Amino acid sequence: MAPHTEQLTRPAVQLRSLTRSFEDRTVLDGIDLDIPAGQFVALLGHSGSGKSTLLRAIAGLDHNVAGSGHLTAPERVSVVFQDSRLLPWRRVLDNVLLGTDGQDKGRAALAEVGLKGRERAWPSELSGGEAQRAALARSLVREPELLLADEPFGALDALTRIRMHGLLRQLWQRHQPSVLLVTHDVDEAIVLADRVLVLDSGRIGVDLTIDRPHPRSYRDPLLGEYREQLLAALGVVEDPA
Length: 241
Known about the structure:
By secondary structure, the chain is of the alpha/beta class.
């Protein structure tokens, strides 16, 4: 179930004039951005455009960014990275519960991502997709109001990525946090998100609403127009042949 209209009127994230420079290079240049509560947003951009820098700012992991402009975000924020970042010396359930209490909540979260029965497994015994499922479970037990995902499926094979896309959408619809997904994949953005941003030259160059019902398919020809708009914004011209 999608978030209610009244929920989407409440901002979960507000950025005003957010700037971040590294030495003499400005990566984020006075960004203004609102993300309503419960909205699923994807962030595209070239490598080095500042996508992960922006995500780290919102997560509160880069205080130099947060201190250079106005930034508000929910109290409960979870981050999922491309690397699952499971501790190899802890079993799966212990990884999910890291820093929290409640065995039952951890087991329920693992069941929700399809890992029931894997509580006592070691991270080395998991496939790449299973490790990312465990990382999602770890984020769920914290009941986040905002889920930040930094290319969480980038290292997975194509079939596993598609399965993980469906899982992420299901978890979002069930728990209804705000989601900011950083990705290089235009198709991933338009299939998953309801709003897609393109970061260019330190600013939000495109802010596009994807007005199509879910579930969406990569083969849906009606998504082609969105795809062309986003590729053009990224400076990509497809070979018609």
